[in-house]
Amino acid sequence: MTYTEQCAIVAKEIYQKFDASHDFDHILRVLQNAFEIMEGMEGVNRTAVELAVYLHDIDDPKYSEVTGTSAAALLQGLAVPQDLQELVLAAIESVSFSGGNSKELDSIEGAIVRDADRLDAIGAIGIARTFAYGGAKGRKLYDPTESIRTSMSEYDYRSKKTASITHFHEKLFLLKDLMVTERGKQLAEDRHQFMKQFVKQLEIETGLSL
C-alpha cells in the first residue's frame, strides 16, 4: 500500500469527527481540484500534493479539540521519508487564509494545494460549506449591522463570530484574485460570479444591503 493510500485511510477516520464543511468529502473534492490543476504540469511531486491534501485540515485551529494528533505526527507514523515530510508540511503551511495573512508560497506543490482548497471554498459548494459551518457554530445567516473588516490579524479573523454572509465579504470574494496557478485562476472565475449572483439575490429577497 502506498503512502497516499495509507494516509487516506487514516485521514478519513479523523475527518469523520468534523462537521460537513470540512469532512472527508471536502478532502476528496480538493483532491480532484488538485488533479485538474496539475494536469499537464511537469516537475510536480504528486505524492507530496496528495499527502498535503489529505492532511491539510488536521492542524486547523477550528478543529484542534477533535483531531488529537497533527499532520507531522501522522506523516511520521506512516514512515514517510524526511524530505517528503518537509515538502508536505511546507505545502500545508501555505494553505491557510488566516484573515489574509497567508504564508509565503515556496513550492509549486504548495501553490497547487492552496488553489485546490480555495476552489472548494467558492462557488456553489463554497456557499453550501459556509452555511454548513455557520450552522454548526451557531452563527447568524446575515447581520446588516456588522462592519466588514478589510484588514485583520489572524487572531481577529479567527476569534470574531461573524455572520455567514460577512464571511463572503471578508474572505470568499477575495479568493479569486489570490489564485496563483493558471488553471486555478480559470476555474475560480465562474465560481466567483456565482457567489456574487447568490448574494445579490439574497439582498433582493431580504430587502437588505448585505
Automatic annotation (TrEMBL):
Name the UniProt record assigns to this protein: HD domain-containing protein
HD/PDEase domain segment(s): 19-131
UniProt xrefs under InterPro entries: HD/PDEase_dom (IPR003607), HD_domain (IPR006674)
Xref: SMART domains: HDc (SM00471)
UniProt xrefs under SUPFAM superfamilies: HD-domain/PDEase-like
Record lineage: Bacteria, Bacillati, Bacillota, Bacilli, Bacillales
Listed Gene3D superfamilies: 1.10.3210.50
Coiled-coil residue windows: none
